[in-house]
Amino acid sequence: MTSLTSESTESVESADLAAYCLMLGDDALIMSHRLQEWCARAPEIEEEVALANIALDLLGQARLLLTMAGEAEGAGRDEDRLAFFREAAEFRNVRFTETTGDFAVAMTGLLVFATWRLAVFGGLTRSRDAGLAAVAKKAVKELAYHRDHAAQWVVRLGDGTDVSHRRAQLAWDSILAGAAELLHAHPVELRMAAAGIGVDPATARPELEQVLAQVAAAATLRHRQLPEPPRGGTGRYGEHSAAMPALLGELQSVARAHPEATW
Hints:
The structure is a single chain. It contains ten helices and no strands. By secondary structure, it is mainly α. The chain has a single domain, classed as Up-down Bundle (Ferritin). It is globular. InterPro entries: Aromatic_CoA_ox/epox (IPR052703), Ferritin-like (IPR012347), Ferritin-like_SF (IPR009078), PaaA_PaaC (IPR007814), PaaC (IPR011882). This is Phenylacetate-CoA oxygenase subunit PaaI. One of its GO terms (biological process) is phenylacetate catabolic process.
């Protein structure tokens, strides 16, 4: 595979570039896995296909970013090694992506995640790193669809029956309670942003707040602005939810059972 890293980042520490790509790649990998769990469980056959395609989009993003992380790290770990042979504490995805629940929770979570990631990747299209910019330019088209697809479902559930509205409100309140983590800036993210390579996730707040307010109004859901992000203790530091070990146990099971296999 042609190297995805760029000569324009020579002044940036390789460790920071590797860590940054790992964060973005892990976000996509774990969110993709959670969406894959809806195959054969979604309320409509067409929706199973749609969610499978969204999961594949995110998996594609994860593969590119984990490959970049491995190249920047220089330790010989490829995308498969990073995805399947790390322990939970070594993952750097936001805890938000580990959330699980009913279909309303899944759609609200996808709406928040895709809106936030779209804002971040919009900034990454202007990255000084050619590899990151290329990944972002492709990803923003996918993420815009992911956001709009999830928004349609949130409106459909919120402005539907009394039962669907009640469950949509519960999902909205639950998901937004943990969404501020997305806006926390890890020191690596701040250094990458200062170098013109990455994006400070806190800059996604205005777009995220605007979209959520619009969707909440259309879905007749009660909405409050997001709280301030936590100061630390997030998935970016390897601190994950109790669900993470089981999630990885399923995601990594085949690769670990057959570690010498070629996929």
